[in-house]
Each structure stands twice: as C-alpha cells, then as structure tokens.
Design goal:
The chain is of the alpha/beta class. It has 7 helices and 7 strands; from the N terminus they run E-H-E-H-E-H-E-H-E-H-E-H-E-H. A 7-stranded parallel β-sheet has the order 4-3-2-1-5-6-7. The structure holds adenosine monophosphate (AMP).
Length: 204
C-alpha cells in the first residue's frame, strides 16, 4: 500500500502491526483492551501482525483476533519459540533468527502501527517506527493508545523534544494519540498523510 492509498482502500490486504505487553501481571484492564482491539480489527477485516507471544496483552490480542474470525500473524525469534512463549492458535507463525529480524518483519509489511501500553519491548518497537517515519522510511499511521494516561509522560517527553528543538513541530504529525481502543480504526483512517518528503525536514 502506498501513502496515497488509505487503508480503507482494500480491507482484505490491510495489515496492522500491534505492539503490546508480554506482562501477565499488569492490570487486567490492559489485557481486556488488547483483546477488544483484536476483535475490532478482525471485524473490520484487517489482519494483524504482532510478536507471536501467548502471554499478557500479546496473547489477549491474538485471542481477540481469533475470536473475531480474523487473521493474525506472529513473528517470534527462535529462542522464544523454544521457551514455548509462542501462541499456539495463530493463522501464521514466522520463526526468525533474532529480535532485530522480528522487529523488521513486523513493521516492514504493515499499513499502520498501534502501540498499546507495555514495557521496554513495546517502547523500543514504537520508537523505531517513529524514528523511521521521521526519516521517510516508514510512512504509515502510528497510533498510541493512551489508556489510563499511560503514555502521558512519554508524550510530555516528545513535546519537550520539540520544544528544545531536537525535533521539528511538524514531527508531531507522525503519531496520533487516542484514549481507548475503540478510537483506533478511525484514527488510522484519518491519520495525516506522510511522505518521503519528510526527509527534507528530518534534520532541523
Ligand atoms: P514488553 O512491552 O516489554 O512486554 O515487550 C513486548 C515485546 O517484547 C514484544 O513485542 C516482544 O518483542 C518482546 N517480548 C518480551 N517478552 C516476550 C514474551 N514473553 N513473549 C513474546 N514476546 C516477548
């Protein structure tokens, strides 16, 4: 899909990359939100790619997609598969050599990124997507689900990056913040267009 062609164009081929927590110990509200997001994306007939895990929000997301009758692809490094961390009921599971390959595969074919609350794994993946978007390498919507105000400190830091001129104010258009998973699909459909021309203001 090109940036000129919004995800609404051809639902059957749209693939949403979801980053979320592996934690089983966080507030169950996060797991419920991941499950609900899976159901919503499946019902919208968009497919999902994620880290392939069975635990925490990752497992809940996959269960939601499966229950919603959708397609979900997992990408997991071999060592996690060996530790039996992979979800057993996915439409597709790619076992890759390392974390770097996994991250690249998850992002490269996706039409949008959604970040639910999570730990450093989620944050690292999210920041790579934002960084590549700034450089005009990744061009698609990036949605932050700021439920329970989880991302407030991160948004304050990003705002400071702009205020202190580590980034340009135009970079704020790279991500869209929503307060719950029900808003994710409309946010993807209405995200500001981003092109390779972003390279022209990548360095400020
Ligand atoms: P975190 O947000 O720190 O829980 O990390 C979630 C991300 O880290 C996933 O997308 C994976 O890249 C990786 N990860 C960490 N722990 C696991 C696990 N138990 N199963 C699958 N992926 C995991």
């Amino acid at each position: 899909m090109t940036p000129e062609e919004p995800p609404a164009g051809n639902p059957a081929n749209v693939r949403i990359c979801v980053y979320c927590a592996s934690s089983r110990s966080c507030d169950p509200e996060y797991h419920r939100a991941a499950h609900r997001l899976g159901v919503l994306l499946a019902r919208h007939t968009w497919s999902v790619v994620y880290g392939g895990g069975a635990y925490g929000s990752m497992g809940a997301l996959a269960d939601g997609v499966i229950e919603g009758g959708g397609k979900i692809t997992g990408v997991i490094p071999n060592f996690m598969k060996e530790l039996e961390w992979a979800h057993g009921g996915l439409s597709e599971l790619h076992v890759v050599e390392d974390m770097r390959t996994r991250k690249h595969l998850m992002l490269s074919d996706s039409d949008a990124v959604v970040a639910l609350p999570g730990g450093t794994g989620t944050l690292e993946e999210l920041f790579e997507a934002i960084t590549l978007k700034r450089l005009g390498i990744y061009l698609n919507p990036i949605i932050l689900v700021n439920m329970r105000g989880f991302y407030d400190p991160l948004l304050a830091l990003l705002d400071r990056c702009i205020r202190e001129k580590f980034m340009d104010s135009q970079h704020e258009a790279m991500w869209t913040v929503v307060s719950g998973v029900e808003e994710v699909i409309p946010a993807i459909l209405h995200a500001p267009r981003w092109t390779r021309e972003a390279r022209n203001f990548a360095v400020i």
